[in-house]
Write a structure and sequence with these properties.
By secondary structure, this protein is mostly helical. The chain is built from two helices and two strands, in the order H-H-E-E. Strand 1 and strand 2 form a beta hairpin.
Length: 88
């Protein structure tokens, strides 16, 4: 079981990553529109932020310490060709 302080650190890391994804997306749109985002694009960005955060964070949530059972691994030993690959 994860200690309370470890769980708090994990939660802070998840929140920090949510914030970084959202800020990065906003800054990318600022650059895309030369620092003048049209109002209709702001409306689209507002509607899409939950989808963006959901799709960006699903793979990340499985990678935090304590988010997987002990003994499990993100990497399978090898594929039939002998090349290591990530499991989903």
């Amino acid at each position: 079981m994860i200690a309370r302080s470890e769980k708090k650190k994990q939660n802070e890391a998840v929140l920090r990553d949510f914030l970084l994804v959202a800020v990065s997306w906003y800054l990318a749109n600022l650059l895309r529109f030369n620092f003048d985002i049209p109002p209709d694009s702001v409306a689209v960005m507002t509607r899409l932020i939950p989808l963006l955060l959901g799709t960006e964070m699903v793979p990340i949530l499985g990678g935090y310490p304590g988010s997987r059972p002990a003994g499990s691994s993100l990497v399978r030993p090898s594929t039939p060709g002998g090349v290591p690959c990530r499991s989903l």
